[in-house]
């Protein structure tokens, strides 16, 4: 899944929530995602950080800016070891980004 980082105006920075996504495994934290649906909040699942890239996207005022796009891999629990494992192979740093061009981008509203 490709997830757009936080930040409403101007270039996104690797701090606060964006840094938390990037370093969640280092800090022993799980990464869970939810969506807002008509019937309420829906659980999407647990994911793990698998890299990120920068892309020009509009900010909340319509101005072009550099946005952080996270590559997230869904994980499951290995029934024998009870350790989280990626359902897909984790991409290398030099992997082809075209495999991550999923048109579905989950955006979470950020309160200022």
Structure description:
- With 112 residues, the chain is mainly beta.
- The protein has one domain.
- The chain is 5% helix and 43% strand.
- It contains one helix and six strands, in the order βαβββββ.
- Strands 1, 2, 3, 4, 5 and 6 form a six-stranded mixed β-sheet that branches.
- A hairpin with a 2-residue loop joins strand 2 and strand 3.
- It is globular.
- The C terminus is likely disordered.
User: What is the residue-mean pLDDT, rounded to a whole number?
Assistant: 76
Proportion of helical residues: under 10%
What is the alpha-carbon Rg in Å? 15 Å
For the biggest sheet, the summary is: 6 strands, mixed
Report the oligomer: single chain
* Uncertain ranges: 87-112
Order of helices and strands: EHEEEEE
Number of helices: 1
Task: Kindly name the structural category.
Answer: mainly beta
Question: How far is the N terminus from the C terminus?
Answer: 26 Å
Strand content: 35-45%
What is the count of distinct domains?
Answer: 1
Shape: globular
List how many beta strands DSSP finds: 6
Topology overview:
Elements: E1 2-4, H1 17-22, E2 31-37, E3 40-58, E4 64-77, E5 84-86, E6 105-106
Parallel strand pairs: 1-6
Antiparallel strand pairs: 1-4, 2-3, 3-4, 4-5
Give structural attributes.
112 residues, 6-stranded mixed sheet, disordered C terminus
Write a brief structural summary.
This protein has 112 residues and is mostly beta strands.
């Amino acid at each position: 899944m490709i997830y757009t980082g936080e930040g409403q105006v101007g270039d996104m920075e690797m701090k606060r929530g964006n840094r938390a996504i990037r370093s969640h495994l280092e800090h022993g934290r799980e990464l869970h995602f939810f969506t807002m649906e008509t019937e309420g909040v829906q659980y999407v699942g647990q994911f793990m950080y698998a890299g990120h890239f920068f892309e020009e996207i509009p900010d909340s005022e319509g101005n072009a800016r550099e946005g952080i796009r996270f590559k997230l891999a869904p994980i499951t629990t290995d029934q024998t070891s009870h350790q989280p494992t990626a359902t897909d192979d984790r991409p290398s740093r030099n992997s082809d980004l075209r495999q991550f061009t999923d048109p579905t981008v989950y955006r979470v509203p950020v309160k200022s």
